[in-house]
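Record type: monomer structure entry
Structure origin: computed from sequence
Chain ID: A
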Amino acid sequence: MESGPPAPASDKHLSIVFMGTPALAAHILKRLLEARDAPVRVVAVVTRPDQPRGRGLKLHPCEVAEVAAGHGLPVLKPAKIRTAQFLEQLKSYKPDVLVVAAYGRILPAAVLETPALMPINVHASLLPRHRGAAPIQGALLAGDKITGVTIMRMVERMDAGPMLLQQKTPIAPDETQATLTNKLAELGAQALLEALGALARGQLRETPQDESRATYTSPVKKQDALIDWNLPAEQIERMVRAYDPWPVAFTYCNGEELRIYRAAVIPDSGSAQPGTIVELKGSFVVQCGAARLRLLEVQGAGRKRMKAEDFARGRRLKLGDLLGGVS
């Protein structure tokens, strides 16, 4: 059931503190800053501390920090957010709205209570499906045909707040984590601007989530991308797309890590042991727990991405060779 609008905003622009970290959040922030006709004004940005990257492991700002710096915005990079110092800094900007997009931390009640109107989250799924840290990977792994974004009012429970607005988009058969992230970043920006406009006019409506339909995702670890060839080929192919560009689905070939970037399901069942190379014409085909998987693009240890057939030829793979076996 929908509820009435929250306390209406005044006629002035909504003062916003934006919290986010990766590229998806950076795109949303950029669109907020470029939306000249929207009744919003970003006054500060909160993001994660700079992280070591590259061969020299020098500290580099995240994507959100780079966008903020390019627009001359004050940027807070607290190592801890449950401190009186950070809370006072946040309050000093007197935000009407706290906008959160992939910040990467659970926010305490004291932070959620800071804005005059409400804390808003941009979540990359159609809630209550795929709550948690990896909704994009979750949708791809589940074989969903449709996904989208949800704008919701934040509460202390993870992704459980009332929904303010949803936008849907189809998932293409060849969709990867990278392409879907880009698609949902733009969709999320559009939905956020629409929701903020409605909030400024006092026309925003809340719809409670159906708890009986809630599903959850967990933070992705590299080991999640290790292929178990006993799984059905369809599920492994989803892993390939869900974990591109990180952590990248991988197996082992003759004891060395082999990353898989593109693959296609072959319906043939076969009776070989899962992980066995059963065909080497063109590219190579691997037996799975159900059906088979044709590897199309791979990357061997210390090598560039290449066609699977070139890899097989260079490594002189043979029918009956077994993938996997090392962890």
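Annotation 1: The chain has two domains: 14-217, 222-314.
Annotation 2: The helical segments are 23-34, 63-70, 84-92, 109-112, 135-141, 177-200, 233-242, 308-314.
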